[in-house]
Amino acid sequence: MKILHLMLSCFYIDGYNYQENVLPRMNKEDGHSVRIIASTETYIDNQNLGYVAPRTYQNEDGIEVTRLPYRGGLPHAVMRKLRAYPGVYPHIEAFAPDVILFHGVPAYELLTVARYKKNHPSVKLYVDSHEDHHNSGTNALSKWVLHRGFYRSVITKVLPSIDKILYISEETKDFLIENYDIPSGMMEFYPLGGVIADESEVERRRQARRGELGLDGEDILFLHSGKLDPIKRTEALLEAFTAVDDARFRLVLIGTIGDEIRDKLDPMIQRDPRITFLGWKTSSELQEYLCACDLYVQPGGQSATMQNAMCASAPVMIFPHKSHKPYLDGNGFFVEGVEDMRRSFQEISREPGLLAPMRRRSRELAQDLLDYRKLAARLYR
């Protein structure tokens, strides 16, 4: 089977463990022929979006990636929103896919893909959506002109050509209905997932990283990661953590600290020797630290690292976003603010043994909901 992934509504970052990286990798490991057509937008320094040159190359998984620039004719800022590219149809036609997964609903190039589907009706066309009110349509121009104007006109026109629209969360489903008027019957839940290693490999990674950090069996490791900015609520996390005086507690921070909160976070980190900032780590390194931790803490915005943490058998402490509800069932804590976090840390301090059953429950939930191998197989139906 030939499977084509189109990242023309979003950025694509080589070497990460995002859905856009892992699903093609799973498709290839399952024996299929896979290609990627992507925009030139990517992370250039693991923190800020930028652009690479248009070209075709093999990615870290040996999958051919073609980077296309935006079309000309209008200012770059406009074309970046319209998401129109030259030569998409010939690239699709040259590969002749059996399955197309178009990542992201808001894009002009859905018109091109729908034209290909019309000419090749046996092709399965899936469109996934990551848009919700946290990350899209956050101002009047974006909401009314782009999403409820331009993008809605495109998706309405191509909807008869699409086999399924795959939404990653309940808030994404709400966004699709409210902004594009997508019928519920067209949609299917398709969460961001992770790769589930066998238990012996999880334990090997866990012991290696805990040894590196100088932890013994009694120590309790909390992990928080990502671009640490106000949305992540890292400052609130540090306030809650430092309020609980337990010498067994360790908190590791991985990622980058945003300039807007650096002056606040640096002194808090320096004051408590139980807190370690490790800086940016590769996706494979981060996965090993997720295996090592006893609780992954994500009290702010949403991130696929939470799903990866569950796939590493880690309990989670997360904000009760509507989209987080399927992921917490006996495997962690919902927290809305500093006091909730402080109470959860105190509960763990009094009864650290509660983390072991939470760890088993996270793995069960991950196997049921988040296994990328199962998610990839759903594209082969």
UniProtKB/TrEMBL annotation:
The lineage of its organism: Bacteria, Pseudomonadati, Acidobacteriota, Holophagae, Holophagales. This is Glycosyltransferase subfamily 4-like N-terminal domain-containing protein. Residues 29-193 form the Glycosyltransferase subfamily 4-like N-terminal domain. It comes from Geothrix edaphica. InterPro entries: Glyco_trans_4-like_N, Glycosyltransferase_grp1. PANTHER family: SULFOQUINOVOSYL TRANSFERASE SQD2. It comes from the Bacteria. Pfam families: Glyco_trans_1_4, Glyco_trans_4_4. CDD domains: GT4_PimA-like (cd03801).
